[in-house]
Specification:
The complex is a heterodimer of chains A (about 375) and B (about 220). Chain A is of the alpha/beta class. Helix content of chain A is about 50%, strand content about 10%. In chain A, helix 14 links the parallel strand 6 and strand 7. Chain B is an alpha/beta fold and about 220 residues long. Chain B has 2 domains: about 80 residues, Methionine synthase domain (Methyltransferase, Methionine Synthase (B12-binding Domains), Chain A, domain 1, Orthogonal Bundle); about 120 residues, Cobalamin-binding domain (Rossmann fold), CATH 3.40.50. A 5-stranded parallel beta sheet of chain B has the order 2-1-3-4-5, sandwiched between helices. In chain B, helix 1 packs antiparallel against helix 2 and helix 1 runs parallel beside helix 3. Chain B is globular. The chains are: A alpha/beta (about 375), B alpha/beta (about 220).
Amino acid sequence: MSDTMTHYERMRAAWNCEVPDRVPYMPMTVYFVARQGGLTIKEFITEPEKFLKAALDGLDFIGDAQHPALNTADHMWMLGHAGWDMTTLDWRIWDEFPPHGNLPSIYEKVLIQDYDDVMERGFSTILFSTALENNIHERSIDDFLYYQFEHTKVWSSVWRRFYDETGIPILIGGRAEHPLDLLQSYRGISQLVTDMYTMPDKVLEFSYWLADYEVMQASREAVTMGAGELPGAENIFFYNGAPPGMPPDLYAKLYIPVAKKMIDAWVARGFNVWCHFDNDQTPHLEGLAGFVDGLPKGRVLLDLEKTDMKKAKEVLGGKIAICGNVPSTLMVYGTPEEVDAYCKKLIEDCAAGGGYILGAECETPWDSKRENVVAMKQAAEKYGRY
Amino acid sequence: MGKVSDGIAALDAAAACAAVRADLERGRDPMELIDEARVGLQEVGERFDAGEYFLIELIRASQVFQETADLINPKLTELYGRGESRGKVLIGTVAGDIHDLGKSIVKVLLDCRGVEIMDLGVDVAPPAFVAAVRDFGPGVVGMSALLTAAIPQFRTTVEALEAAGLRDTVKIIVGGGTVIDLDAAMLKADHVASDANAGVDVMLAWLDEAGGASAAN
């Protein structure tokens, strides 16, 4: 049976919890495509034209499920350039992929010494922290302004060309993080845990303060990327990676309300919100279901990593579209047959009635076997027909 | 269970520390107190295994335990000197990875059970593991990673220990979010831990079996 929808139409139908022609396939293949294209990590992040070529080459094996998303505007935060929030984190970036280099990594430190001081005087209080050690304050103002404002336009130009040439939507326009995720980087996991138990109200107050900034920053990026003109740029990628293993009471008090405020703010401005969740969210599914309370249909997607997807479908089905869960280790160490079997089971568990997108757990690892990525794509086509 | 262990099990640092101070003032044997604190942390571990407690609560419990231990240890040293070690464990996050949450939890859980620990930190190259095994003489080596990109480093590190003639002197356990589905044999390790608590149980069993000496001897 042939496809009757475009990739974008299929994705939108799934977001709307409607039944598309088949299950959409949406792995996050950013590092994978760069690696396959022979790029270094720095080239892939800083040279959009080179990444565009890698993405076009990737059409041969990924087809219309290209995922330029994380390489749009805000991925530059990995260089510590874009945005005051990410500028003030201690990111390290290597030239090469492992084993000679490493993926961009963040070194957790207690960069925020005093919540009130930062709320009163802003991120510059962190920028000049001696604990930062990445000498970001030594960068020129021209350099900073370029990456803060101009580089986004370069990415935007490149991805508009990608769309013009391929007709494939870019899927994501802007990117933001949950404040607690950022706080794990600013305070370190150990100190953040202490804070959550000893001063939860201050953590919540700071989270709301930071949420406003994240909402503004991601909205600006999405507009620059072409929201309203370029299909997919209207989606905000809302990253929720940490802290892992929060108990339900803390989650309900510190996580959910802040996330809900951010989601509501984006939707009110006309954006859709792609909520990406690391870790196992199974204990929190009822809370996540509340993300769409009071919102029009089809504005929120939950992209879940290690969550029980069958349970997620039971709790969220018909309310919020879900995505994700094909394990990273399977993509790197498994066989195409094993990937096929895993995807088949996921589709059986989650696809009924629509609202499901086949995707990788977190992102498709850079060192995934190409045949496994292809197997995932083919599984969606083979088992995902409605 | 007493007030100290109850406080730790309830993640209530103020209550646990108040109970420790009161007991010390009353002249309670600090050895009893530290044992009771360990019971509290053990209770948290059991609740974690049962799915009643979450990872953040395990971290918090280790913090509360540490606060009580900081109060108890000076008195313990004063009366008994340095206690006997249950064995030595060397831990580190392998080269190419900087995640240290799981490793840090393991460190506290081992520490409270009387294990002598050397923590090499994160992004630890194989030669550093080899040098530390030679110098520290652990019975167990624990390696951690979260990134799939770092997984090959487990095997590389084990092979470095083999090349140095040290592999048979240690038991090797690996852990981390992405490795739990992998076979130990593939990584040339002796065990893959499903979580921090389970990994600690395996390490303690190895150390006890070896009588506090090198676990593989």
